[in-house]
Amino acid sequence: MCPPRAGFYQFLRHELRPGPERIRAALRVAIACSTTVVLAMVFQVPLPAYMAYVVLLISRDEVAGTIATALGGLAAASLAVTLSLLFYIVDASEPALRIVLLAASTFVGIFVARTFALGPVVFLGAFILVLSQTLLDDVPSPELMTHFLLWLWMVVAIPVVVTVAVNLALGVSPEVALQGRIRAFAGELGAHIEGSAPGGFGQCGESLAGVMVLLPRAQSWSAGLKAYDKADRLILGTLAEILVLTRLLPAGTNGERQRLAWMLRTSIARWVGGAPVPDDRPTASTVQKTSAERALADALVELDGQVTQRAAEVPAPHSATRKQRWVPDAFTNRGHLHFALKVTAAVVAAYVTYTLLAWPGIRTAVTTCFFVALSSLGETMHKLTLRLSGALIGGLAAGLCIVFVIPLLTDIGQLAVLVAVAAMACGWVASSSERIAYAGLQMAFAFFLGVLQDYGPPTDLTVLRDRMVGIFVGNIWMSIVFGALWPVTTASLMRASVASALRAVAKVVARAPETVGAGKATVALALIGAERLAPLPWFEWKFSASVRASVEAARLTIWAAERLAASAFVLVRTEPVARDMPGIPDPDVTWLVSAAHHLATGGAAGKLAPVGTDTPGDDSGARVRLHEEMRYAAPHF
After folding, report:
1. Given this model, what pLDDT does residue 601 score?
2. Most buried pick, 269, 494, 546, 573, via CB within 10 A?
3. Does some domain include residue 6?
4. How many domains are contained in the chain?
5. Are residues 167 and 184 in the same domain?
6. Does 279 map to a domain?
């Protein structure tokens, strides 16, 4: 049976919880936004709303990520402006050709964004290029359009410079941010081991994934940290194993689990440094320990040894590894091609719709198609929901400010204060997890479009109305296209994630060399990805009962896979050496591989082979437990 889930109020409370790092991040966004708006008003730079919005787009919780995003965005804007000027030579007087170039730009940009290492930069450049092409219908002459495009580069450059300057002055280095994130993860995982964490496995998994994402950024910022790359990845692999092992811990709390949590916090405090080592060591429990508790204790002892070895060894020079420019299946996986074609069809349909209606105010339909497109229908509809709800909240706040607050403002300083307050609130929401972060960006966009319409106080609410209509039109086209052309369900992506985890578990059981650290981290990350996808079938087009059954089936599949992976880790801890069967493949490894194939193909590979019968004479208790989890998981796979 799956563990209980928190309600919506508890979910929002967790997502919007305050913290020192979050407060500082929101303050940096507020300062950068208000400064950008003041510069736009003083020098009368066009599109002040977009300038303020760019600040939120490029802001990250640490300096390295902000600088990388800012420079990438500026490079993308430069490339897009240059290509737009070239395109105008060809299609300024040919609307039919303009549609062709718009479609080609969208397709190439989306395909390369999904398959190339510099995907975000290419995506932003493609969006600016397409958006600039749609502006030709509203500008009376090519000369004015060229002038506007040159200003468009400044619309990106000014907030980039301001945001980078604010983050260099007040931001947090990625190394410090990494240490804080590791401490937060240790606190959550320790509470989870003790049985007192409300978020449980999913919250701890998201924190671990955040640590793994931030580690390369911190290494690129600090040469000293980069020298410990191998040791740190071994530690992260052990932490991933510890997280997975917690799935087999019984409910409730006991002295042994408090001791295990103390061991974890002690090792983490020694690893990151700067934190006091806990001195209130709990006494060893006299209660008989479960196999999961014994395996967890063994993993924690290994973690402590890895931390000790890291502190004692002399850091070796880090050899630069050649990064892969394209994803491995860039030109063999038709899914990338289908995704680019679907986004292109939706963008062209949205452009044709508002052009035929002669309603340029709903141009946000094209923006909607660009920014909400994700792999599956459920993910796309989830992002559409966030976009619509964020726009409603931000638009309502802007409307209230236009009616009741703006008439009371007398100078640019007061406007800057209003922008700072709104930006801080939106930045607070945007710093949440990906479940609701996009709503914060849309709140900011809708608010800025309403309040910063020109260089004087706004008096018209039609901008807000047109924006909401544009979002609605974009939602309709994205729903139609993604539901009709090569539909990809969230369940299929979830099954693929679980299949990836099972393949990695098979390598762990086979004692493959790569499972020392990276393999176990692969298991955890794949399961974390599946956990993230589990609720998203609610956003797909199904009847209520069907959705409920689909979500419950997804949760049971993930739950079974997590317990199966934990049992495999216990087995490896109990039997460090693989069974000696020369010439005969391990039947458990074979079953795991076939189960992964069965999941990935959606059952098209045939009936899943049954688990072999246990023979107590030659099977250990850990292997018997693994077989029990296999038999439980088989109906859900």
Report:
1. 82
2. 494
3. no
4. 3
5. no
6. no
Region for residue 276 given its phi and psi (left: phi exceeds 0; alpha: psi -120 to 50; beta: otherwise)? beta
Place of tokens 């406007």: 415
The C-alpha atoms of residue 50 and residue 444 are separated, in whole angstroms, by 10
467 within domain boundaries: yes
- Got the DSSP string for 7-66? -HHHHHHHHT---HHHHHHHHHHHHHHHHHHHHHHHHT-S-HHHHHHHHHHH--SSHHHH
Residues 523 and 391 in one domain: no
Q: CB-based contacts of 393: which residues, under 8 Å, 6+ apart?
A: 439, 443, 446
Splitting the chain (637 residues) into consecutive groups of 10 residues, what average pLDDT does each group show? 60 83 93 96 89 90 88 87 83 78 89 79 80 75 78 90 94 90 90 75 86 88 83 91 89 77 91 67 64 89 91 65 71 85 92 89 84 68 80 90 90 94 94 85 88 78 79 83 80 87 90 75 90 76 58 84 92 74 72 88 68 56 87 86
In a domain, 317, yes or no: no
From the list 125, 131, 127, 124, the residue with the least C-alpha distance to 148 is: 131
> Count of CB atoms within 10 A of residue 356's CB?
8
Cβ count within 10 A of residue 284: 10
Read off the tokens for 479: 């729903």
Q: What share of the chain is helix, strand, coil (3-state, %, to 5)?
A: 75, 0, 25
Q: Which of 455, 484, 513 finishes a domain?
A: 484
